[in-house]
Design goal:
The complex is a heterodimer of chains A (about 260) and B (about 240). Chain A is of the alpha+beta class and about 260 residues long. Helix content of chain A is about 30%, strand content about 30%. Chain A has helices at about 5-15, 100-115, 145-160, 200-205, 235-260; strands at about 35, 45-50, 55-65, 75-80, 125, 130-140, 160-165, 175, 185-190, 195, 210-215, 220-225. In chain A, strands 1, 2, 3, 4, 5 and 6 form a 6-stranded mixed β-sheet that branches. In chain A, helix 2 (about 100-115) crosses helix 3. The longest helix of chain A is centred in the C-terminal third of the chain and has 26 residues, at about 235-260. The radius of gyration of chain A is 19 Å and the shape is elongated. Chain A starts with a helix and ends with a helix. The model of chain A has no long low-confidence stretch (mean pLDDT about 90). With about 240 residues, chain B is α+β, with helices and mostly antiparallel strands. Chain B has one domain (about 15-235): Ribosomal Protein S5, domain 2, CATH 3.30.230. Helix content of chain B is about 30%, strand content about 30%. Chain B has 4 helices and 12 strands; from the N terminus they run ββββββαβαββαβββα. Chain B has helices at about 90-110, 130-145, 175-180, 205-235; strands at about 10, 10-15, 25-30, 35-45, 45-55, 70-75, 115-125, 155-165, 165-170, 180-190, 195, 200. In chain B, a hairpin with a 2-residue loop joins strand 1 and strand 2 (about 10-15). The model of chain B has no long low-confidence stretch (mean pLDDT about 95). The chains are: A alpha+beta (about 260), B alpha+beta (about 240).
Chain lengths: ~260, ~240
């Protein structure tokens, strides 16, 4: 669909050879991040995250349902992402396609595998009734790096979520039980150069992509490599180091914005 | 259902409004980077973003009209915009709303200028509280202006309804659920022509006349807010900095 990247490719590569990026950032520098929690009154938790011009809204809804047979004492979480046609001339309406599914699954994994939500505390009646958490990610404006924006928005939304017990006559509302969530940082590689927080143009010419989720001890909690290019060992180590540094900064900002 | 709910007391509505008072409305123009034109609108606690793409080649090709552009409005509700989570994707209700909004906009856009093209208008409801189709159309109109799509006018929508035998402007959540009629309309404010009209509930002929007049009056108030938002954006940024 888009012709621009092939025209821009040489331009971006030449800039990068001199250590520059189109918007003047350093290779390991993020665009400005804005986190705005609690913007949707109908949702149990919500947040808008902007990374540069990219804009994502994540909303949390809770409902009561049956647990999975293999975990009768745990709550259930599901994540869905919609690449709605509002966000880009290249998105079409209809059922989610590969891109949206990968996005939702990477965000889901970051939250699920780090056990950021204490699902064991979301059981109402073992084997019968548990809380079901729906994380819905709405892409509003697509200018690159949806992975980081979507996971950050979902974390901020979860951190401000209230379990609506009163609506279901189950006692008092209480905040969603959460543990410290890891922060995802994404880098892409083109022409042997690795840059963090890719803009849309950088993303469209990227040969390989790596998302690294780190916690505030500096440990790695989840990774996902994408696209058909490759990284060497040195590059991966560098990406992890930069992800830890940026992850710490982003986490500080996140905690400040949600007031924790 | 609790039908004893008092929607009107001492001439005041549940949220303290007078019968002919609108909820508060806030409009921002040009909020998105990728879209050709966009608008963010808050109407009470409704929150809506509209974005316009095009005119561009209509795809699939069989939808093309050799004489004019097609207008493709898509109304979509976010899963988290309502009390009980809505399943993502179009349902019968949103398809119908998309259709009536597309038709209303088609009337006002100079479609004959763009044969074979489509003008895509995406309306996303992020937070819903009654009256989303009116709010959606109003936002879409502003996004079309922001996109520079030539139009005969800036369409605008507003609803009137009936609660406790009283005709009121712009129904809120409870009024919509327990009231006895809802009449959303869209007009072309320059000519007063009606572009969209739906009604459900029960109105006598007199009540209908009253409700229609009130809704039209509401449209003109909203129209002024639209125009102010548009001039605010384009006056504050003169050409060439």
């Amino acid at each position: 669909m888009t012709i621009t990247p092939s025209i821009k490719k040489d331009f971006l590569i030449n800039l990068a050879k001199n250590g520059n990026r189109e918007d003047g950032r350093k290779f390991d520098e993020y665009r400005k991040i804005e986190i705005e929690p609690g913007i949707i009154s109908k949702a149990e938790g919500s947040a808008r995250v902007k990374i540069g011009n990219t804009q994502v809204i994540s909303g949390i809804k809770l409902d009561i349902g049956e647990p999975y047979p293999d975990s009768p004492d745990s709550g259930v979480m599901t994540t869905a992402a919609e690449l709605i046609p509002l966000a880009s001339p290249d998105f079409e309406s209809g059922p989610p396609r590969e891109d949206a599914i990968e996005l939702a699954r990477v965000v889901d994994r970051g939250i699920r595998e780090s056990k950021a939500i204490d699902l064991d505390k979301l059981c109402i009646e073992p084997g019968e009734k548990v809380w079901i958490i729906f994380i819905d990610i709405h892409i509003i404006d697509y200018d690159g790096n949806l992975f980081d924006a979507a996971s950050l928005a979902s974390l901020a939304a979860l951190m401000t979520t209230t379990v609506p017990s009163e609506r279901f006559d189950l006692g008092e509302n209480y905040p969603l039980p959460l543990k410290e969530p890891p922060i995802s940082c994404t880098s892409v590689k083109f022409n042997d150069i690795v840059v963090m927080d890719p803009s849309l143009d950088e993303e469209l010419i990227a040969e390989a992509r790596l998302t690294v989720a780190t916690d505030n001890n500096g440990d790695i909690r989840a990774m996902q490599k994408g696209l058909n290019g490759s990284f060497n060992k040195e590059e991966i180590k560098k990406v992890i180091k930069a992800s830890i540094d940026n992850g710490k900064k982003i986490q500080e900002q996140l905690y400040k914005c949600v007031g924790k | 259902m609790d039908t004893d709910i008092k929607l009107l007391e001492n001439g005041k509505r549940l949220d303290g409004r007078k019968p002919d008072e609108l909820r508060s409305i806030k409009i921002e123009v040009g909020v998105l980077h990728r879209a050709e034109g966009s608008c963010y609108l808050e109407w009470g606690s409704n929150k809506i973003i509209a974005a316009v793409y095009g005119p561009r080649e209509a795809i699939p090709r069989h939808t093309q009209n050799p004489l004019r552009a097609i207008v493709n409005a898509k109304y979509n509700m976010a899963a988290f915009s309502v009390d009980d989570r809505k399943r993502p994707g179009p349902d019968r209700r949103s398809r119908e709303i998309s259709k009536v909004i597309s038709e209303a906009l088609e009337n006002i856009i100079l479609v004959e200028r763009y044969p074979r093209a489509s003008i895509d208008v995406n309306i996303e409801v992020l937070d819903a509280e009654a009256g989303t189709r009116c709010a959606g159309l109003t936002a879409a109109a502003v996004a079309l202006v922001d996109a520079g799509i030539p139009m005969k006018d800036i369409p605008v929508a507003c609803a009137a309804g009936k609660i406790e035998d009283q005709i009121v402007l712009d129904l809120g959540k409870e009024e919509d659920n327990y009231g006895s009629a809802d009449l959303p309309i869209a007009i072309s404010p320059r000519t007063g022509e009606i572009l969209l009209l739906q009604m459900d509930g029960h109105l006598t002929l007199d009540e209908f006349d009253k409700a229609l007049d009130l809704a039209i009056k509401g449209c003109y108030i909203v129209s002024d807010i639209q125009k102010k938002a548009i001039t605010d954006k384009f006056e504050s940024k003169p050409e060439g900095n």
